[in-house]
Amino acid sequence: xxxxxxxxxxxxxxxxxxxxxxxxxxxxxxxxxxxxxxxxxxxxxxxxxxxxxxxxxxxxxxxxxxxxxxxxxxxxxxxxxxxxxxxxxxxxxxxxxxxxxxxxxxxxxxxxxxxxxxxxxxxxxxxxx
Length: 129
Known about the structure:
Layout: H1 2-24, H2 26-62, H3 66-91, H4 95-128
Helix pairs in contact: 1-2, 2-3, 3-4
């Protein structure tokens, strides 16, 4: 909980600093926003390492279903990276680029989930025969 408060405070302080610079030099506001985003992203990556350690325990319980867990992790990674990149593009004033990144993320998630869809269809076929 304390970690979340620290990151939240860092975000608020960074935004306040960016707003101060944005009035005089707008590009400084974008640079501060980008640097702040990178700092928070690095913190998130440390947290992902801790989650990955816990997921190894979950893999032991799944037996043969490990491929579903890897698809889930891939989808979460795709969505987080696309959201991060789109947010930076929006902050820079490039909303159209951000929208395209979001569309790419949605399509990537759909393609990453296709193996699970095929497995479900295969299971349904087995039960109906």
